[in-house]
Specification:
Elements: H1 7-16, H2 23-35, H3 40-43, H4 45-57, E1 67-73, H5 83-94, H6 99-106, E2 110-115, H7 133-143, E3 153-158, H8 161-175, H9 184-196, H10 204-211, H11 213-228, E4 233-235, H12 237-250, E5 258-260, H13 265-274, H14 291-317
Parallel strand pairs: 1-2, 1-3, 3-4, 4-5
Length: 318
Amino acid sequence: MSFSGMPFDDVRSLLSQLNAPDEAAAEGMTKAFHRAGYSGEKLGRLYEIGVWLARTRGAVPPLIGKSGVALYAATHGFDEAGLAEQRAQVDAVAAGAAAVSHLCVANDLSLNVFDLALDLPSNDMRTDASLDERACAATIAFGMEGTAEGVDLLCVGALGAQARLAASAMLLALLKGELDQFSQSERAVISEALAFHADHLTDPLEVLRRFGGRDMAALTGAILAARAQNIPVVLDGLPALAAAAVLYKSAPHSISHCVLASCHGPFEKWVAAELSLQPLLGLQFAGEAGCAGAVAADIVKSAAALAGGVAEVARRLG
């Protein structure tokens, strides 16, 4: 993505050019399920996911081949002491020692962790915008390269407690929720940031650059690129939800290709409901970035395999 005019203009242009979800493919997949004798009551969420995949991929059956997990790591100016923790998490993933590494091996998923200039924290969102517009747009463009490996299914998330706190502030700015579910120290950081940026919360992309940092900007780019290329996305964790919320508030159909891996706690459940997302898993993942996505990806791949078999049965029946 190259810039023309103001940096965010290209992002807005891409959002305006997104095709509508393929309802004809969804209808075709629904008919195939019923022709083969399988209703939603028999297959539960697998039926729903199969139809969603057809709608997203624009094909019956919706084929899923190569699948991968992309995790983004950045540091934020409101907590520069978190650099060591972030670096340790990135190193663990890169070395294949993190929990998500083992799950990706088990579920045949590629795994990429992107170091977004860990040694250069974004600005402190309590007293400044995290990024200027050009830097934010450039990081969105970088995130869009997350689909460059040619995956048919992409799971996205971000590493670290800093990302979760910045994401929480972003989500409260975008969705207007309450602070009562956060600790006292978290409330202090979020309240100060929300007060500082109170006059600049109407534009979702502006909210992203003011609160989000490089990790959320890259996540936004990855999710948007996947939507433009008909690639289904599994959202893992609050940072991914925050990036999805930026797109949703810009154009609700821009996250029609997304499913949510899991929810941890009341705040995430509230956000999921606001974005009309229902988690695939009831497992309580907390702080292990990518794990829920890696497990949920296996469910999505199973639904795709099931849809393929159902479509073949329906074809034989005529």
